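Subject: design request, 158 residues
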């Protein structure tokens, strides 16, 4: 069973205004209002943030690495800003996106959830990945979650 990051990775405080990002979820402001770097330096800053996200995934031993959504502040922002009259104030979140009291989840907890999933799907069809919303968290919490995800998968795989 491969592990992956199908959602966001923590975005650095030097890259994006996390306070404003978490005020209205998902954010419905134009992109340049949230980025802390100048537009002329944004691509380079996002590239640097991507290197950090990839390295964290490598160190956590995630099998399939992703960009961690470093180039966007929200998965739905572009859509929400393009369409008028859509109420997305309460999207139904799986975790506390403010970063408060976010459980890291032990490897044993991850393993128990994988074992439960394996009752319904074969290991060849299962990809172990975290829930979305990690961009709102600190890097150390995201790294711990990724590491525990891999460790939990390893407990099940033997």
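Subject: RE: design request

Done. Sequence follows.
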């Amino acid at each position: 069973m491969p592990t992956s990051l199908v959602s966001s990775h923590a975005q650095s405080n030097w890259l994006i205004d996390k306070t404003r990002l978490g005020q209205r979820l998902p954010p419905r402001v134009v992109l340049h209002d949230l980025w802390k770097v100048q537009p002329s330096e944004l691509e380079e800053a996002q590239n640097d943030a991507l290197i950090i996200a990839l390295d964290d995934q490598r160190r956590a031993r995630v099998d399939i690495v992703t960009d961690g959504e470093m180039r966007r502040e929200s998965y739905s922002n572009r859509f929400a800003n393009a369409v008028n009259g859509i109420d997305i104030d309460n999207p139904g979140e799986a975790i506390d996106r403010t970063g408060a009291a976010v459980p890291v989840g032990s490897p044993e907890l991850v393993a128990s959830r994988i074992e439960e999933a394996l009752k319904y799907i074969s290991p060849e069809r299962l990809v172990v990945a975290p829930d979305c919303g990690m961009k709102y968290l600190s890097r150390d919490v995201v790294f711990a979650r990724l590491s525990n995800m891999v460790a939990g998968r390893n407990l099940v795989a033997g």
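The chain has five helices and no strands.
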